[in-house]
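User: Show me a protein chain along with its predicted structure.
Assistant: Here is one chain, sequence first, then structure tokens.
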Amino acid sequence: MIKKFLRWLGIVVGVCLLSVATHHASPRSPVVKEKMQGIWMTNVATAFLHHTTFLDEILHHLSLSGYDRVYFSVYGLKGTLYPTSDSSTHFLLRPPLTNPLKAAVQESRRQGLKPYAWFEYGMMLYPGNAIAQKHPDWLLKTVEGETVEDGNVWLDPAHPEVQEYILGHIDDILKVKGLEGIQLDDHWAVPKAFGNSNQRQALTTLTQKVYSHIKAKNSQLVVSLSPNPYNFAVSKYNQDWLSWVEQGIVDEIVLQVYRPTPEAMVASLSNSGIYTASYYVPVGVGISATRNVVPFSLNTVQKQVEAVKQQGYGYSIFSWEYLVLRRLAKFF
């Protein structure tokens, strides 16, 4: 009797798993928005949803909820979401013969969403990274000879081999067809501990090379940037992003204004550089849904969204995982 029960239980479980694995959410037409309504998704979340076959359902729900784009972290802690020979990747993040980025792009397009490859770690590596260990000459040093700043090591944007390394990753990303663009963020930077004017120019030069490289591959791809407010970005991280916008080497700005309250966020917008940038490129405001924004509820984030809309800007929320946690928090 028990054996028969277990056999039938195994059959039922198998059928359920097969049903989940083969089910696809119904497709949706492209979401058209006057202003951006985006969301960031980390590499761990993207990989998990891909491996468990729930990615299409989640993207379907995001599309139904009015989002028009997703920024997928593809280059970060523990590796990449795309095949590459230039970096080691944790096998749970990207098992052999898999390409979570390709799946994310295909499913996004199926759901009418614009998929971006978010080059999250930029010029930054954690100290134990294999690249940092193999190429210590690629790393920036302070005048005291230190390589670690903000808990990480940083690649030298002026080093020819670093430039080849970055462009190689860009090429690997662009092997995936259907991308809307590539996004750099606040880690596309050089901390001021490593110098100011020379490093600022070196980073600008590398940004020009990356932009030209991407456009040569596909002139329709959007080169997006998600920096901090300008004065902070340029003084602390040599990220002269307003000049990049004016030079035409950035196509979109999603400004990270991660503040605990709507009032603090609106106050930070006034001298952030976003108004000037809006004369050159589409802009939006990055809103944090992390635990620093309290109380920990969806309503708190929605208030910030409404505040951004009142200022006349689109937005993107960091991140999908925190929105899920906020939704679950009401049950505890």
